[in-house]
Specification:
By secondary structure, this protein is of the alpha+beta class. It has 5 helices and 6 strands, in the order αββββββαααα.
């Protein structure tokens, strides 16, 4: 439960979905036996009453955004999974440095590993579900493109009047925008979960430097030729000719 929520201050606030579309307003809260708010009662734009768990409410200035359970799960996984993994590594270092007994280390490791396995399993399921949702949005976009093609063709040949064409094309384009935004949000959320699943790569340890063998350094061929030429010239310069007087 979101204990920090200011329930009385949210009554009458507008409610939007994750894509920024207004869905209604909060009219009240449902409380438990201790008087704590458990669910928000929202009146939709169509006059229906819908209940949302307070854990799914995000407050933004003068409006409230209702996130999906999947989105909240993604938020929790992307935050907790890397943290637990880091704690697990610190636990190993504590045991290595003899800070904690081996028995305590093994016991805690079992608990940490169990939580990590469960969270990784949940994350994989979330990724698979999001893949399906992305494909569903792709299919929706194809459907809308076909619908637009029909409107454009019929309007082009004059069988669909301007007023009907304008109203219908605006509805189709609006839904195309919604589908594109939904797909983009799904891809971003998917990347977030994938990043949380990614194991931290340890920096490779530098390889030990082998001692250089004491072998004579071989000079390149050009250097050898140049050295030989210089030696020859030096010998010629030192030659002394003796002439009879």
């Amino acid at each position: 439960m979101n204990v920090s929520i200011n329930a009385p201050g949210l009554v009458g606030k507008n409610v939007k979905d994750e894509n920024g579309k207004e869905t209604g307003k909060i009219v009240s809260f449902l409380i438990d036996s201790s008087g704590q708010p458990q669910e928000a009662l929202v009146e939709t734009t169509h006059g229906q009453m819908i209940r949302y768990p307070v854990d799914l409410l995000n407050t933004r200035e003068d409006e409230v955004v209702v996130v999906s359970e999947a989105a909240r799960k993604i938020e929790v996984l992307s935050e907790k999974l890397p943290t637990i993994r880091k704690k697990r590594k610190i636990l190993d270092k504590l045991a290595e440095n003899k800070v904690i007994p081996s028995g305590i280390h093994e016991s805690l490791c079992k608990e940490f590993d169990k939580v990590l396995r469960e969270m990784k399993s949940d994350a994989q399921m979330v990724l698979e579900n999001m893949d399906k949702q992305v494909k569903a949005q792709d299919e929706q976009l194809k459907t809308l493109q076909l619908a637009r093609a029909f409107l454009e063709i019929e309007h082009g040949i004059g069988t669909l009047n301007d007023e009907a064409y304008q109203q219908s094309i605006m509805s189709v384009l609006k839904e195309v925008k919604n589908a594109q935004q939904t797909k983009l949000s799904l891809i971003k959320a998917k990347d977030k979960v994938a990043d949380a699943l990614q194991e931290e790569k340890e920096e490779p340890k530098p390889e030990p430097v082998e001692e250089l063998k004491r072998e004579p350094i071989q000079a390149p061929a050009e250097a050898k030729n140049e050295a030989a030429t210089q030696t020859k010239e030096a010998k010629q310069a030192l030659t002394v000719r003796v002439t009879e007087g």
